[in-house]
Amino acid sequence: MQFTIGWMHDLPMTELTSTARTRPDWLRRGCVAVGNWEPLVFQRRRGTWRTVDEAEIYEREHSEQTVRTLVDLGVNMVITHFYKGYGLRAEAEETEKAVALARRCRAHGIRVGAYVQWGTYHPETLVLEVPDCERWARIDRDGRPALPYGSAQSFRLKACPNRPGVLEYMEQVVAAAVDMVDPDLIHLDNFNLGRLHDACWCDDCRASFEAFVRQAYPPDRYREVFGYPPEATLRRPDLRAPVHEVFRRRIWDPAVRAYLDWHCDVSRRALRRIVDFGRRLKPDVIFDINTGGLNGVNVAGMLGMDSAGLYPLVESFWDEEHCVPRVRPEGGLTSKFRSYKLTRNYDLLQFSYCGNMDHDDRDAGKWLAESLAFNRNVALYVDHYPGSRGFWPATGPGYVRFLREHESLFATRRPVSDIAVVRVETALTPSFDDDWAQQMLAEQYLFERGRAFEILFGSQVERIGACRVILLAGASAVDDAFEAALRQYVNDGGGLVIAGAVGRRDEHQRDRGSNLLDRLLDRRNLPMPCRAAKIGRGLVAHVNQIVPSVPYPQEESFDLGGTYYDAWRLPANAVALDRALAAVAPDGLRFEPDAPHGVVFEYYADDEGHQVHLLDLADRKGLKCTLTCRLDRRPVDARLITRSGETACAISDRSEAVEITIADDQFDTYGILLIRDADGARS
Ligand SMILES: [Zn+2]
Question: End-to-end CA distance of the chain, in Å?
């Protein structure tokens, strides 16, 4: 079986997956990181942050005294400015400061990351070094350079990776970074090509698109997908408005879907070239990309950012979403759990803002706790520097101390999940409609219920076998390979819950004439909603749909700036979902918590048993809750460890399960329940 990385063509994953990904040992200790990646030239030219003492602050950020302060705070990584797009020559003076800072950091055992601006360049200065750099610019259909930051920053242009010289220069930048800074990490900022309707209109991009279509669609498929004879050339679509405005609910035009796929492919190939180049120079350098957050906006459909195709190429992900983990006044829970879970499945470390000057200590504390609970190879990242422009939350030291005191727990934990919810690209990428709402609500439901779950992409379908139950919602279009894998999973004894019209269409958005549920079961034998039907050794149940508690935003508002926190609430029919899950897992799941609203859980196995990380998103003190566990070995010891100490937890026997009672009057935001059995973990 071959799984595709896009949703239409058959380029195999192996062709694009770099095999040289590295996982240096130092990552296991976890990162406590700060950064100063905006060079003075950018601060001045942009003009938005300026202060009369800017030069003095900038000097201080590079000083020995600041580095010593960072050491005292427990910082073990500094991401320094290196290349902001002005040109290696124009930034040379500032680069020298970065090199000196890197030397000071290393002398104190602090790892160093080098910032490289991928997304934009500044021709006013770069032209001194690269006379024809104006030709790099991504252009619109009238030949004018696109302005990624609009007229307010018209000095910044976006380079087209298909133009001669662009990636060659990026290689020079990476080579210079390796040579001068010897970085442990290279951060590629703003890693995107912009929105699809702004896709570059240059001749190189036209040729690239046509070549891509020829390669991805051999003549017989070409005719099947586009209806054309092979000698007819598919033109790139002339999109004059954002895709979601043009198509409203779903991209029906196969050429636009091919165009999106091509856009993703350009990014993937460019990234692969640069990271492979960097690793040849320094095999243990890790690469970090900032593609924004994964909050549920259709970035694949609008930006052509194919997460599942990019993540296997790098070691680290930068999440620029500022979503604060909290209980909202309307009752919903907000969190960046989606980004953490999705990137963790690719073994990525995630840098995630844990505080800045717009937020208070309380918010920062929750961000830090959320990172400890969910992040792979824990990164606590605080925006910019303390002691200069930056912010170091009062809650910071307590969390850093906790991380250091329990380093081995974080280093050895492995996520465990009872349930997987799958983001099926064939449905979601061309969708601006109900598929996204259903998907987000399914994830929200599992999060709010404190379930042990993970979020997979459809292209990771080979991993579903590790979970007891699959919850599928928002997957109106599935390809044959995905359907066959699901069928096999259920036949082998898996539990499947289907919400809504899953599998109504194929990957070309053609109506299959029936839903997946009807194809799995004889239509006449369809059970009532929430009741299970047996297929092979497995069970299938369905609910008609996931019902939002408040109307989900209409497709018109699907825009990049939008995050729909207000709609992130427990679905109105959560109880029906509970029943459907119970129906397909009649022996119960491994972990079933009963906790006050706002307390969420993340589950891990380690060498001695299990760890359950508890995060209270409400502002309150104290915690009382229970956790029913069905583990291979009966726990002999359960302890809650927090920043203020350790509390023993009662273990009581229930039929086929044990119940652990957690009661801690002093509980504040975060703690780890350690469940120990006599012989160590069995899962
Ligand atoms: Zn171009």
Answer: 27
Ordered DSSP codes for 527-594? PPTT--EEETTEEEEEES-PPPSSPPPPGGG--TT---GGG-S--TTHHHHHHHHHHH-TT--SEEEE
31-320 architecture in CATH? Alpha-Beta Barrel (3.20)
**CA–centroid distance, residue 208 to ligand 1 (Å):** 9
Domain parsing of the chain, residue ranges:
31-320, 419-584, 591-677
Please give the helix or strand (H or E) that residue 270 lies within, else none: helix 254-281
- The fold of 591-677 is Immunoglobulin-like (2.60.40)
Q: Is the dihedral of CA 58, 60, 64, 70 positive or negative?
A: negative
Cα 207 to ligand 1 centroid, rounded to whole Å: 9
Q: How many CB atoms within 10 Å of residue 142? A: 6
Summary mean pLDDT of the chain:
89
Look-up: residue for tokens 């800074």?
A: 181
Residue 33 predicted with pLDDT over 70? yes
Q: How far apart, in whole angstroms, are the C-alpha atoms of residue 430 and residue 9?
A: 14
Q: Which two tokens stand for residue 373?
A: 């609970």
Distance in Å, CA 203 to ligand 1 centroid: 7
Compute the distance from residue 125 Cα to the ligand 1 centre, in Å.
21
| pLDDT over 70 at 524, yes or no | no
Cβ(205)–Cβ(145) below 8 Å:
no
Q: Residue 437: which pLDDT band, with cuts at 50, 70 and 90?
A: confident
Q: 139: CA distance to ligand 1 center in Å?
A: 7
Check: CATH 1.10.150 for 419-584?
no
Over its C-alpha atoms, the chain yields an Rg (Å, rounded) of: 25
Is residue 449 within 8 A of residue 574, CB to CB? The reply is yes
Name the strand (E) or helix (H) holding 506.
none
